[in-house]
Amino acid sequence: MPGKTPHSNGKEPVENSVRNNQDVEMTDEKSSMKGKGKKSVKEGEDMTVVVPPSKATKQSSQPPPADAEGDISMDDPDKEQDLEVKVDPVTQAVTDIKSNFALLDRAVALFDSRFTLRALRSISSLRKRLTPEIISQVIAETFPPTSASAAVAKQLLTAIGKADVPLGRLSSTDMEIDNDSKSPKNGSKKEIKDIIPEIDIFLAILIQVHLFDSKQFQSGAEFSKSLADRIHSLNRRTLDSLSAKVYFYYELFCEQLAPLPPSPRSPIVAIRPTLLTALRTAVLRKDIDTQAAVIVLLLRNHLLTSHISQADLLVSHTQFPENAANTQVARFLYYLGRIRAIQLRYTEAHEHLTAATRKSPASNCALGFAQTATKLLLVVELLMGDIPERATFRASNMEQALRPYFLLVQAVRVGNLEDFETTIADHADTFRRDGTYSLILRLRQNVIKTGIRMMSLSYSRISLRDICIRLHLGSEESAEYIVAKAIRDGVIEATLDREHGFMKSKEVGDVYATREPGEAFHDRIRACLGLHDESVKAMRFPMNQHRLELKNAQEAREREREMAKEIQDGDLDDDDLGGDFEGM
């Protein structure tokens, strides 16, 4: 255009391919882009950009201070950590305990047991920090002296030996709030709030945990008895999860009192009427948590005193709740599997124990239960004639605990009776402590059967004398009896020649031509389907969500009818429909 010079974009005529010797200032392209909407810089004027120095530059520009000798002192990075305020562990423990009170308040207000379970899960982190001083401080700061629950607070303090601690003590935060409330501006004191029963029951559970960890079993049993009576009289559905924990520790206290089980005079026999009463009340009140916990405790009680028939009657006359917690279901299946194993019903015992190991929590807090259930499951598999997989013993958290059982499985798999008896003699204390010694003694016949099976596969014909020598049996007659019983039970495919005194094996057919692979595959499919069904049942859905969806769908259909009617009447135009149909 006339009057304007064309843009050269920095490309000027170059003579002999060399620019002028004058220095050329390099400008940032972004600075030219930022000039939109502002006054343009006149031609020929230099534009100076001032960049403020960063904090790191300021700090680096200042020389570090020198000491008396003239050396530069290096900054200690630990000084900042030393300047941090250290929190008193007692104060922190008190704060953590009192933080659960808000969860209990929400559980009561919303009638949701999940908040109560969150408070109970915090006990594991509080357990190591519980002392009588901390518990008494929490009780003194929580219960005012003029409240209706002051008598309950005095009972809690008496249980931990702190009956002289006065109630109504204020914490530092409460003191500031109280001073503000007493100021002339406010003119009134802070109102005294009633303490809900869930809070004092939670504190009572903490006292139970402290008494059990400090091995005050007699005091804990007496305190638990009074606590169970109080819970029975309250009749509040929001106490279901807490009452289950109370009965759990009540059983543990009685198990540690002399005479110890399996003595018939043990205190655990005396608390059975209390547990049965609690079970009957829980069933009438539809208290699922207490019902599941008490059934498990009764089964444990009967097994500790070796009353297997009574435990079987309890299982047959009660119905375990379907919506019980997963941990209680795992315990119930474990005790049920132990009962069935003692009753020689190994197939049912194997099913229950397999389900118990699958339902056991994967965290380290339940490692002991997983190990105990796995030990019993291994013994039941051996009694069924199966050999456990080697991967079970290679698990990092199971290898050391299952070492005696690994040696036992090796002896049974090979059919070596001598190694089997040696293993039992070396680890008898471990097997008795695990409660599997009586079941392991039944494996002697299985070891003999396994040895006969190995010999039937290795030899087409073998004499009874050689069988007697290899299995370390007393006489050939006992070897003949054992071989005959193994043939009748279907353990081996062979015939017995009594006149010549030898066993002749039959040809082994193809195992895949039988029904055994199909049955094993069917069992795995059934286990997977059962796990899927239980997972679907355990899913949580919002209450009355289907009604809300039906309501929204009904409103949408009504709006569609109204719009269709107005369109037919001609009351709606394109603007009302919100559409621009020019491009259609």
TrEMBL record:
Residues 330-510 form the PCI domain. This is PCI domain-containing protein. Keywords: Proteasome. The keyword Transcription regulation does not apply. Residues 554-568 have a biased composition (Basic and acidic residues). One of its GO terms (molecular function) is enzyme regulator activity. GO terms for cellular component: proteasome regulatory particle, lid subcomplex. It comes from Xylaria multiplex. It comes from the Eukaryota. GO terms for biological process: regulation of protein catabolic process; ubiquitin-dependent protein catabolic process. Transmembrane segments: none annotated. Residues 68-77, 569-584 have a biased composition (Acidic residues). Residues 1-77, 554-584 are annotated as: Disordered. InterPro entries: CSN3, PCI_dom, PSMD3_C, TPR_PSMD3_N, WH_DNA-bd_sf. Pfam families: PCI, Rpn3_C, TPR_PSMD3_N. Belongs to the proteasome subunit S3 family.
